[in-house]
Design a protein that fits this description.
Layout (H helix, E strand, L loop, with lengths): L1 H13 L3 E5 L3 H12 L3 E5 L11 H13 L3 E3 L4 E7 L2 E6 L4 E4 L1 E4 L8 H5 L32 E3 L4 E3 L4 H15 L13 E5 L2 E7 L2 H6 L4 E9 L10 E9 L5 E9 L4 H13 L24 H17 L1
Parallel strand pairs: 1-2, 1-7, 2-3
Antiparallel strand pairs: 4-5, 5-6, 8-9, 10-11, 11-14, 12-13, 13-14
Bound molecules: flavin-adenine dinucleotide.
Flavin-adenine dinucleotide binds next to helix 5.
């Protein structure tokens, strides 16, 4: 919070005109949105070939287009090497020789846990150099529990620990740790990496594994995408919704999903349906049986998450035939 107050204070007092944001992850994108709203010219520099690398590049491109439409200059494949001060200007230089001049630079290039204090106290470190914890959130040192951004997280599908700092996870881990510190016996049930972000007029969300992550974990993933309407098209205001679903070809088990749509097209609710299905190890086919709410202004008798699931099943059958 201190850093966000400092940024706000800087903008109010120094009235910068041009900003560079380093990193096109969800925090960089949210900051681009906020700074444009405040009237700044924003350039976003992203190392990868597309923004929001937590999504498939095809869906990242939709976010890229939204940023561009709102006046953000987006440079992908931009590896920042130097920020130099030239009188009052900040000059941000990339490996390819691009130089962008700005009045302020925001670095949102990912997070790493600061675990020196824990390490010197004899606490073992695990995934991502974060504090090693059991699923009870106990560390290897008696009477010390840990939770949140500084600790490793049990991944429910991968069945191993990863480093994936998220607010939702921090809350659940903190609750487990607190209960066990008071003599409880609870275990953290695992994260699916469910996340959602609003970027200007778009919302992007994901849960579970992407195809390449699933393949790396030993699954036999098959992915399809579908663009459909968020609600019955005869009812005014229907918007396109882009859905992608990954399932295991052998077992039919749902492995992951991504959704991009306009704000207020229930992207978050829909990814949560898929997250709940994933949490309980459901098969893609089983999604069609879910009794989901329907009214024309909000959905269809087959909700878009069921439509994409049905398409997945048909495509798998065709592949096998
Ligand atoms: C801009 C931004 C947007 C985010 N948006 C989302 C989102 O939409 N959804 C989501 O799930 N997650 C989001 N996150 C991630 C989420 O905020 C974190 O995962 C979550 O806050 C972690 O909780 P925590 O308690 O581990 O750490 P924090 O919330 O960081 O709390 C740690 C606290 O400990 C204090 N502290 C640190 N060192 C010491 C010390 N030595 N002594 C005493 N106190 C200390 C800090 O000042 C801080 O108050 C976002 C993060 C950022 C930065």
């Amino acid at each position: 919070m201190e850093e966000s107050f400092a940024v706000k204070d800087f903008i109010e007092k120094k009235t910068p005109r041009r900003a560079v944001i380093i990193g096109g992850g969800y925090i960089g994108l949210e900051m681009a949105d906020a700074l444009v709203q405040l009237g700044l010219e924003v350039t976003l520099l992203e190392f990868a070939s597309e923004v929001l690398t937590t999504l498939d590049p095809d869906f990242g491109r939709l976010i890229h287009a939204e940023l561009a439409a709102r006046g953000v200059t987006v440079k992908t494949g931009a590896e920042v090497q130097e920020i130099a001060l030239n009188q009052t200007d900040l000059c941000v230089r990339t490996a390819s020789g691009l130089t962008v001049t700005a009045d302020m630079v925001l670095v949102a290039a990912g997070a790493r846990p600061t675990t020196e204090l824990a390490r010197t106290a004899g606490i073992c470190l695990g995934a991502g150099n974060a504090v090693q914890v059991e699923r009870t959130m106990a560390t290897n040192v008696a009477d010390i529990w840990a939770a949140g951004d500084g600790v490793q997280t049990w991944h429910r599908i991968l069945k191993r620990y990863v480093y994936m700092p998220l607010g939702t996870t921090a809350h659940k881990q903190g609750r487990v740790a607190g209960e066990n510190m008071l003599g409880g016996m609870r275990e953290f049930q695992g994260s699916l990496g469910t996340q959602v972000v609003k970027v200007f007029g778009l919302v992007a969300a994901r849960t579970g594994l992407r195809e390449k992550e699933a393949a790396a974990a030993g699954f036999d993933p098959f992915t399809i995408s579908l663009t459909t309407w968020d609600h019955k098209v005869y009812y005014p205001g229907a918007e396109e919704l882009h859905l992608m679903i990954t399932g295991d070809h052998n077992s039919g088990r749902l492995l992951g999903a991504q959704i991009v749509g306009r704000y207020k097209t229930e992207v978050s609710k829909r990814i949560d349906i898929l997250a709940a299905a994933l949490f309980h190890g459901m098969r893609v086919e089983d999604l069609s049986d879910l009794d989901l709410a329907y009214t024309p202004p909000l959905s269809s008798p087959w909700d878009p998450v069921q439509m994409v699931a049905m398409q997945w099943c048909v495509a798998v059958k065709n592949r096998r035939a």
